[in-house]
C-alpha cells in the first residue's frame, strides 16, 4: 500500500468509518452513470461528504421523527437565534434576526434574486473558474454573463480588479461572489473584499455573496463575511449560505438568506412566496438549528481530518505525479488540480481520471473560462478511500 502520511489522531468522532451510500438515491453515487458515464468509480465529484452528520443532529432528527406528525411547520425563534449566534461566534459578524430569510437552496436563492433585481439583458459578473450553476442560472434567465477571470498567482487565485473595472458599464447590475471560492479554495481577505466593495458601490452593482463554504476554512486563514466589512457593503449586498456543506446536510434543502437592506430582503421574500417556496421542511429546521447550537466540536475535528486529507493529496502529487499541481486550498473539501503540464487535452484528462483510474471527478471545463486543463477532486471521505483513489490515479498515469 502507498501510505503517504502516518496519521495518529485522538478524537471523539470517527471519520474513518466507511459508510455504504450506493442504492440510497445519492446523486454522488447513484447518478454517476447518468452524469459521468461511469458506474464503478470512486465518487469524488459532487460536493457532499461521505461522513455521517454530527451525532447531535442525528439524535435531534430521530427525536422529531418519534412525534409522528409531520404537518406544515414554522421556523421557531431558536432557528434564528442559532444563525445569529453562529455568525457572531464563528465569524464576528453581528446580524439581526430580522435580516434572515429562508431559501430551499443557495442556487434557488440566487435565481430568485436575479429575477427580482435584474432584467433580461442586464449583465451579471462572476469570477471564473467558478461554481457552474452561477452562469447556468444567469444564462437561463436571459441575463448576460460577464466573466471576470481570476488570476493564479503563486498557487493562489486572486481577483483581477483591473479586468473587472474594464468590463463594467451601466448594464452591469449584479456581481455574484463565491466566498470562499469554489473550486479554487481562496479565502478572500478583508482587503480584497474591501476593494471589491468599493468598485461595486461606486458602480451601483448589487453583490450576492455565496458563503456556503465559509465555515470550512483551514488555519491560519480567516473567513470574512462580505457584508461584515463595512456598513456600506452590508447595505449593498445579500448573503446566501447554509449549514449543508459544513455538516453534510444538503439533502434537507434548507438555506439561509441574509441582508440588512430591507428592500432586498422583502423583494426576495415577495418573489419566494409566489411559487410557495417559503415553507421549508421540519427536518431541515431541526438539523440546522441543532448543528449550529451543538455541532462546533464535531466541526473542529472534521477540519483537522480534512487538513490531513489535503496534505495527503499534496504530498502524493508532488512525489508521484509532479506534473499535476495541487492548488493548495485555503478552504473547502474540494481540491483544484492543475493538469496542464501533463499535455493531455480536457477530454483525455477526463478519460484518464474517470475511466482509467476509476476516480470520478468534475472536469474543470464545466467551471467556465479558466477551467481548461483542471479537474476538481472532492476529498470529503475517509483516509483509506482517499489513499485508494490516489493509488488508482498513480497507476493510471504511469500505465
Give structural notes.
- 46% of the residues are buried.
- The radius of gyration is 21 Å and the shape is globular.
- It has 399 residues and is an alpha/beta fold.
- Helix content is 41%, strand content 15%.
- It contains 15 helices and 15 strands.
- Strands 2-10-9-8-7-3-4 form a 7-stranded mixed β-sheet, sandwiched between helices. It has a 4-stranded antiparallel β-sheet with strand order 11-12-15-14, covered by helices on one side.
- Helix 5 (106-117) packs parallel to helix 6 (133-140).
- It has 2 domains: 27-54 and 296-398, Aspartate Aminotransferase, domain 1 (Alpha-Beta Complex); 72-294, Aspartate Aminotransferase, domain 2.
- The chain has helices spanning 27-30, 32-36, 55-67, 77-91, 106-117, 133-140, 161-167, 190-202, 231-235, 244-247, 262-273, 282-294, 296-320, 346-356, 383-398; strands at residues 42-43, 100-103, 123-126, 144-147, 151-153, 156-158, 172-178, 206-210, 237-242, 255-258, 325-327, 334-338, 359-360, 362-363, 374-378.
- Rg estimate, integer Å: 21 Å
Mean pLDDT value: 96
- Please summarize the sheet with the most strands: 7 strands, mixed
Order of helices and strands: HHEHHEHEHEEEHEHEHEHEHHHEEHEEEH
CATH topology of the largest domain: Aspartate Aminotransferase, domain 2
**Based on DSSP secondary structure assignment, what is the total number of beta strands?**
15
- The CATH homologous superfamily of the largest domain is termed Type I PLP-dependent aspartate aminotransferase-like (Major domain)
Amino acid at each position: 500500500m502507498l501510505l503517504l502520511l502516518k496519521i495518529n489522531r485522538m478524537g471523539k468522532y470517527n471519520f474513518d468509518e466507511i459508510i455504504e451510500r450506493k442504492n440510497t438515491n445519492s446523486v454522488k453515487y447513484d447518478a454517476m452513470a447518468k452524469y459521468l458515464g461511469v458506474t464503478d468509480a470512486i465518487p469524488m465529484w459532487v460536493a457532499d461528504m461521505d461522513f455521517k452528520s454530527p451525532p447531535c443532529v442525528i439524535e435531534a432528527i430521530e427525536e422529531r421523527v418519534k412525534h409522528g406528525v409531520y404537518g406544515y411547520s414554522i421556523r421557531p425563534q431558536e432557528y434564528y437565534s442559532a444563525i445569529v449566534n453562529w455568525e457572531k461566534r464563528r465569524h464576528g459578524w453581528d446580524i439581526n434576526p430580522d435580516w434572515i430569510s429562508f431559501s430551499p437552496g443557495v442556487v434557488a436563492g440566487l435565481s430568485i434574486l436575479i429575477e427580482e433585481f435584474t432584467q433580461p439583458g442586464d449583465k451579471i459578473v462572476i469570477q471564473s473558474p467558478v461554481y457552474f450553476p452561477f452562469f447556468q442560472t444567469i444564462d437561463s434567465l436571459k441575463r448576460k454573463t460577464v466573466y471576470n477571470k481570476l488570476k493564479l498567482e503563486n498557487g493562489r487565485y486572486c481577483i483581477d480588479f483591473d479586468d473587472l473595472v474594464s468590463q463594467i458599464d451601466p448594464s452591469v447590475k449584479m456581481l455574484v461572489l463565491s466566498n470562499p471560492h469554489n473550486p479554487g479554495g481562496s479565502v478572500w481577505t478583508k482587503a480584497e473584499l474591501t476593494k471589491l466593495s468599493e468598485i461595486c458601490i461606486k458602480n451601483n452593482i448589487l453583490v450576492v455573496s455565496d458563503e456556503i463554504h465559509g465555515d470550512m476554512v483551514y488555519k491560519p486563514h480567516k473567513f470574512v463575511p462580505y457584508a461584515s466589512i463595512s456598513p456600506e457593503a452590508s447595505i449593498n449586498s445579500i448573503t446566501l449560505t447554509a449549514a449543508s456543506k459544513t455538516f453534510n446536510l444538503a439533502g434537507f434543502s434548507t438555506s439561509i438568506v441574509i441582508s440588512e437592506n430591507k428592500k432586498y430582503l422583502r423583494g426576495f421574500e415577495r418573489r419566494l412566496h409566489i411559487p410557495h417556496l417559503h415553507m421549508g421542511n421540519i427536518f431541515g429546521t431541526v438539523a440546522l438549528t441543532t448543528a449550529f447550537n451543538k455541532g462546533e466540536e464535531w466541526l473542529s475535528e472534521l477540519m483537522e481530518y480534512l487538513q490531513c486529507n489535503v496534505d495527503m493529496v499534496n504530498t502524493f502529487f508532488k512525489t508521484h505525479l509532479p506534473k499535476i499541481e495541487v492548488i493548495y486550498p485555503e478552504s473547502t473539501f474540494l481540491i483544484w488540480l492543475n493538469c496542464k503540464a501533463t499535455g493531455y487535452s480536457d477530454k483525455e484528462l477526463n478519460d484518464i481520471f474517470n475511466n482509467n483510474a476509476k476516480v470520478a471527478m468534475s472536469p474543470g471545463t464545466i467551471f467556465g473560462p479558466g477551467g481548461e486543463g483542471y479537474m476538481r477532486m472532492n476529498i470529503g471521505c475517509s483516509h483509506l478511500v482517499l489513499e485508494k483513489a490516489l493509488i488508482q490515479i498513480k497507476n493510471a498515469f504511469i500505465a
